[in-house]
User: Fold this.
Amino acid sequence: MSNPSLSVECPNCGLLTARFLDHCRNDGYKLWPSSQMASAAFKAWRDADPARAEAARYDMELPPEPIDITVDYAARAHQLGIHLFPNSNYPFIICVGAFFLALAAIPFSGTARIVLAVIGGLIFLYGVVGWVLVEDVRMFPADSPQTHGEVHH
Ligand SMILES: [Zn+2]
Assistant:
């Protein structure tokens, strides 16, 4: 029970095998009188230590701790001096503006085309200004070569 190892040397063949399987993996030597007894022993062993909760009966060693591989790409890009555009809804607004601009390209009557072009242009510019000039500056307040001299290319 206190032995933390999940593997054991088989008394018959001497090779390492899972400790709580009733047969040796290498030569089928019967390590436990029955599978039920091996299972009960495994459950008692597992419950003796919360660190063993993730272990499985057929494991040879405890599973490793899960590794946190989350990466903050925005922070990483900032550190490397790479410019990322901010996550934003403004590209949708830009697309709506482009839609009206495209409608203005259809040969309707002159005034309808001018009205569509003005509406589309305003929406388009609003989106571009919001995305590039407002949100981008807010995300990179000091994104200039002077302050980033050591990583600037
Ligand atoms: Zn064996």
About this structure: Residues 10, 12-13, 15, 17, 24, 26-27, 29 surround zinc ion (CB under 6 Å). The mean pLDDT is 84. The CA atoms of residues 104 and 113 lie 5 Å apart.
